[in-house]
Structures are given as C-alpha cells and as structure tokens.
Give the backbone structure.
Amino acid sequence: MLATDIEREIHSFVLTNFLFGQSVDLQPDDSLLGRGLIDSTGVLELVDFLEERYEIKVEDEEVIPNNLDSVRNVAAYVAKKLSCVV
Amino acid sequence: MQVEQFLENSARQFPDKIALTCGEERLTYRQIEERANQLAHALIAAGVERGDRVVTVLPNSIESVLAIFATLKAGAVFVVLNPTTKADKLTYILNNCRASAMITRGGRFSSQPESWTDRPHLRSVFMLGASETQSASLQAAGKKMIPLEQLGQEPIQPPTKKCIDIDLAALIYTSGSTGRPKGVMVTHLNIVSAATSITTYLESTADDVVINTLPLAFDYGLYQLLMTFKVGGTLVLHDSFAFPTVVIEKIIQEGVTGFPIVPTVSALLLQMDLSKYKFPKLRYITNTAAALPVEHIRKLRSLFPQAKLYSMYGLTECKRVSYLPPEQLDIRPSSVGKGMPNEEVYVVDENGNRVAPGVVGELVIRGANVMKGYWELPEETDRCLKPGPPPGEKVLYSGDLFRADEEGYLYFVGRKDDIIKTRGEKVSPREVEDVLYALEGIAEAAVIGVPDPILGSAIKAVLTLHPGAQITKQDVLRHCAAKLEDFMRPKIVEFRASLPKTESGKISKRLIADEHRETADVAPIA
C-alpha cells in the first residue's frame, strides 16, 4: 500500500468520524487535538480504526502526538508500521 | 486576601523558583508576576475598570495563566472559556456578561464570536498571533486590537489595588437546566476560602509539583493553578489527557507529587500497561466530577501504592463540597466523604429540615466558599441559594440527592434535575435538545445520559422525524459538531417512530432511560 493512499484513507476517516462530513478545511499538518477534533475518546477511536484497518498493533507508548496528532503524522506512522515506502 | 496575591506572595517568597512549566517553557514566579503585571497595565490602559468582565479563550498555556492573574490585578473579573467554544455560545457569553475585553489567540482555528460588531461593551481584544485579516476586521468593527506579544513596554510592577475580598473575581459558566449557560459569580473570598480548605486537607506545600491536564475553564482545572500558586509549588500545565503516555512521562520527568483526575482519566489509565513505570514522588491523586467505580479505586491503589487517593465531590457553585480522607477509603469506598475544613454540609427533606442518617434528601452546603449567585439570574439564584438557619444567611441547595451514614459520611444517590455528567463535565439535555430541534426534519428530541465505561455517562439522543424527512445519524452528528463543544455532542443517536409520553403528554425520559437499560449491553472496563 502506498503512503499517499494511507494518507487519503486517514483524511477520509477523520472527516467522517470527527467532522461528520462538515465542509471544513483540513490540512494534513493540522493538529487534531489543537483544532478540537479529537479528545481522549477520539484518540481511542482512531487507534481502534488503525488496528482494524491496517492490522497493526498500536502500543501504549506509540500513542503520542508525533504519531497521531495530524493526518500526515498518522499516515507516516502507519506506513512505518507496515514498513512500506514513504 | 485577594486571589492575585497567591501569585504576588509566592513571587516575593520564591522569586526564582519554577512556578509553571508548559511544553518546553519554564517560568519562574518572578517572570510570571512581571508578565502578568504588564498585561494588567495593558488591560487598564485599554479601559478595563474594576468589576469589568474579561473573557479569556485560550488553550492551557502560559498566556492563559497570565490572562487570569492580569485580569485580577486590573481589578476585573475573569471568565475563562474553552478554546473550542463555538461562535454562537461565545457570542452569547460575551453579551451575557458584557465583557469589556477579550484575550484570545488568532490564526485559522481561533474561537471567535459570530461578528465583532453589535457588541458596544467590548472595546478591546488582546490577541496572540493575530492574522492581518483578523486585525483588520477588528479595527473595522471599531475594536482596539492589541497583540499579546507586544506588552514589553508596560511596567513590571503591579498596578494599584482597587478591590476588596467580597468583590467578584470570576464568572464560571456552567450548564443550566434552561439550556443556556449561566455564570456562577465567585468572589475573591469564595476562592480564597475554597483554596484554603482544599490545600489544608491535601496538606499541600511549596514542595508540591502538580500536573494539570484539565481545561482551566473547568473549575477543577482552574483550582490546580490557583492552589499551586497559593502554596508556592510548581504547576505542570498540559493540554489534555488524549495522549496518556506523554502525561505519564511528564509525571516522572517533573517529579510530580499531585495528580488530579476525573473518572475518564482513570478509565484510560487502567487500560494501559503501567507496570514498567515507577512513580516514587507521587504523593496524592484526587478524583472528582463523578464517583470512581470501586473497582477503579482498588486498581489505582495497586498501580500507585505510595499515593494517597482522595475521592471528592463538588459543584461549581461552591467549588468543593466534600472529600473522603484517604484512610477511610477501605472502610467506605463508595462514600464521597465529609465537608471540607471550615465548611458545613448536611442533608435536608423537602421542607428544609435536617434528616436522620440513612434518609435520602437534598444536600445543603454552608460556607464562605458558596457563590454569590448566578449572574443576572435572580430566579435561578433563589432556587438554589435559600435562607439558612441563622437569620440573613443564604445556604446552597445542591440539587443532588444524598444520604449520610451514622458518622456523617456522605453517599451520592442521584440528581434532582436531569443534568448529565459526561467526561466530568455537566451537560444540560435541554441545551443539546435545542440544537437538535434546530435541524430541519427533527420532530421530537430527547437527550439522556447512559452509562459508559470511559465517559461515566454518554450522551444519547433519541429522535423522531417529521413524515418524509430524510435524516441520517451522520447528519445529526455533523449538525451537532458545528453547534456544540465536543463533550456535549451525542455519542449515540437512535431514531424511533414515536417517543414514550407521560400522562400529561410530555416526553418521558425516565421511560426512555429504562428502555435503554433493558437493551444495553454495557461491558464494565477490565
């Protein structure tokens, strides 16, 4: 799977699940927490989605802003976990 | 004593001690005192007068701390709102308290009112990182725009004091059963009294390092700041508990001694494997907002064996009501304890007479921590501040049903109204229903709280539609996301052909809740 495909999927997941399809400008580097799109339960939902969709195990210590706080970070994290070309 | 003196006294006593850390920034008491004084002078220069309201809309940050103390130093009343506050609510609150100044951040996602015009009382806006467009639109509306970054020329000495301790220090907006937020009026004396009682039973000292992940708009978060500064400790200010590992590592790195939590934080902590961490410095954990399940208490104590665990209960209207001394936790784990030092609490019947142990009644609070009332809502104020035993005194009727045991320890039974506690925050079903009714196609809406292992209560919306209306769950959630802060949005949406009614034809939330209980499969958290 290509990193760009992952980024597109994550973007779409965030739009559907945290913005509920509102027409809002969401840039790949926007902080999801800073924009008030996710809270602690939102992070749990995101982790559930990643584990199910990409069949990866998200470890407790990987639940950090560098991995999960923007669409781009999430995509890069998933790509790394899947060891595909970024 | 006045609240800003918490900072001023500590700045005198511990000028070079780290008072506040936030992200990579570390500020001493002297630095905060001087910067808060500069902002206070700028507020006064912008026309803020004694008793004026200053609304702050910032994430947990150095600036949010400066804003609170600067407002007090200027003799004004601080009103702290969540940075995710939606435009219509922000507009309502700016108008409701007739704020004369606002302190906020600029940028793409700043929370701003629907328009800057039509607010004649609002004269100036202090903005961090304002864009050119934002500055221009403020100026076009006749508002003074002052960049928060440019206060370096203001004096670093405190402005002359104008207040006395019965002056208002803060309005803390809380959900009202009418659906509109109401401002809890809190005086300097109220805050000083509550902070003194709480730091007394927590045995807080200048050696304490307290971590705060809760919003400063939430009184439990706000008091972590106020109380830490009162005793001259160090506050580790963090923006949320969304990334628990980051918080855990901060606790260890900073040598945190005090960790305030709500049940949602406890549920998240217990999902993690914390066995590899050690917390040698952690002296206490406090919990409030809703009772911790007894199972959580047991597990938290085994995870943090050296930390004292305080179960507490509170209301914004008096800050804190009660705490359970940690040594009582094994004896009565489901109790929220007794009144704080310098406060009296008791249970009364419908006529206001004290009831015997074991009898359920409404909890009443007496103390200097009890608020002055709701801002410009005399009828709502009279419903909860009622004449007390001594002539002329008003006591606080909590709206919460309790019973006390033979030794006076309190047990929460339920709310008298239908306010929902979710993620530690109060949500008025009416406020959510009003938003739902504004979505075209919705005929009836009933909002209830249903048990949730992480949130305490999750918000459930049960809806019927007008004939022919085509509305999906996604439509409802999208509409709510645009109108409500995140904690107020329904987590569960259910459509029905009809809603159960009472004999008088009103929607029966009790029946809806009963039906939910019968069908729900609520798994307890492992």
About this structure: Chain B is about 30% helix and 25% strand.
